[in-house]
Amino acid sequence: MNDVWLAALSGLIGGGTLLLGAAVAWFIAIPQRVVAGIMALGAGVLISTLAFELVEQAAEDGGLVPTTIGFLGGAVLYIVADQLISRPRKARVSSASATGQDAAPGELPSNIVARRAAGAAGSAGVVIAVGALIDGIPESIVMGLSVLEGGISIPIVAAIAISNIPEGLGSTAALKRGGRSGRYVAVLWVGIALVTVVAAVVGYVAFQSAPPNLIALITTIAAGGLLAMVCNTMIPEAFDEQHALTGLWATIGFLGAFLLHELT
Fold first, then answer.
1. pTM, full prediction
2. Could you tell me if residue 175 is inside a domain?
């Protein structure tokens, strides 16, 4: 198979599992505690992936300076995007809550409570999707670059694919609770999946002769965005439902990805 098609295939696998997770969440009524457990498991996988497949390799190949800059830059990029998306939604929720000022102290009308819950869920879903996009682009570039080194990198592609399932599932479950339409969700995830395919091909074609420090920068932008998204969104969302079990599921996810890294 032509190497360009191998790069496209690696991006398709990564993006395809986002669609898989989204489809499962939309068409199957999964209990929220199960969604939370899968998100916690995915958080552990993501942390392991960024530690052993992205940051460690970037530091070895490109040095500490681009690794540090990229890692911090990815986190800042995600947090800024998170705030830009969340602020208008928080403003709408605050405006909605103002209509309940006549309620008794400590009480709010049921429609205000429901609106707040839906708004929070929708916001969390969009934020996770933004995280998937921010880390998906450099991740896919990395998958495309790996083809240059002798074909598809099984550990990287597998870890990214596994971790993408709970991202798609958790985001879509939240979007569904927030009242988003099926069309909106489908366009969102198909668009992100297509971006991952294009990014993987770009990674193979455009960065064939890129210096190691540039590749390290690109790789760690993905890692920084991943870690910020995990800490700001996935773990808090999981903890709201799973509480003490969140740490256990995240540990299992981390261990599974680590073993995959060591055994392949």
1. 0.70
2. yes
